[in-house]
Design a protein that fits this description.
Structural class: mainly alpha
Distance between the termini: 18 Å
Shape: elongated
Number of helices: 11
Order of helices and strands: HHHHHHHHHHH
Number of domains: 2
Largest sheet: none
Oligomer: single chain
Strand content: under 5%
């Protein structure tokens, strides 16, 4: 990676980091430059303006999520229920790691009109992909299947924004990670009537997928 590519990458990563911690309002050219260790002129040189940089950061994070969704669903060596579990697990973990980025996409008044539409379009593509994969396996119409998948995904997104609920809604003295796992298993049963038992082999597969999905960390 040459110096220009390095500076460009540091700038965009700095923008994502500030989005996650403070939202769109926290982004200024000066703060980006300080965090990325470049001069202020470099921000406009590489991205044209602060607004363009914000758009680029939001688009980049959204594309990253959808790309990983497709990678997970494409792991044909895993049973489909395991892939579904991994997809929900990845989505939940990503939101828990980057809640500010999610809020910037969906709730920030400065960006929500454009980013919510893009998020909805990507989610719709995912639901189309999933309903096609499940169509011959499930005793549901395509429309009902797509709705169930959408409800399941929206439930995961909503729950991950309030992680304290995972332990609050369970009666047993278990860890938050165990509560999240139980939550996902319940969703698979509730919305798709899919029973999944997490054997040692399946747990190993899930750990491998998590490592693949969060490979850049």
């Amino acid at each position: 990676m040459d110096d220009r590519d390095s500076a460009r990458q540091r700038i965009i990563l700095a923008a994502i980091d500030i989005l996650n911690s403070e939202g769109v309002n926290g982004i200024t050219t000066r703060r980006i430059a300080e965090k990325a260790e470049v001069n202020s002129a470099a921000v406009n040189y590489y991205y044209g303006s602060k607004d363009n940089l914000i758009d680029h950061a939001l688009n980049m994070t959204l594309e990253h999520v959808f790309s990983d969704w497709k990678i997970i669903l494409g792991l044909e060596e895993l049973d489909l229920p395991v892939r579904l579990y991994c997809l929900l697990d990845y989505t939940m973990e990503g939101i828990l790691k980057y809640p500010g980025v999610v809020r910037s996409h969906l709730f920030d008044p400065l960006t929500k009109e454009t980013t919510r539409k893009a998020f909805a379009e990507k989610t719709g593509s995912l639901l189309d992909m999933l309903s096609t994969m499940l169509d011959e396996r499930m005793p549901l119409t395509r429309e009902s299947l797509r709705l169930s998948l959408g409800q399941m995904l929206l439930t995961v997104i909503s729950a991950a924004m309030i992680p304290e609920l995972f332990t609050a809604i369970t009666e047993d003295d278990i860890t938050e990670v165990q509560a999240r796992s139980r939550f996902i298993l319940h969703l698979l049963k509730r919305f798709l009537d899919v029973e999944l038992t997490l054997t040692d082999v399946i747990r190993s597969d899930i750990a491998r997928v998590r490592k693949l999905a969060f490979r850049s960390e």
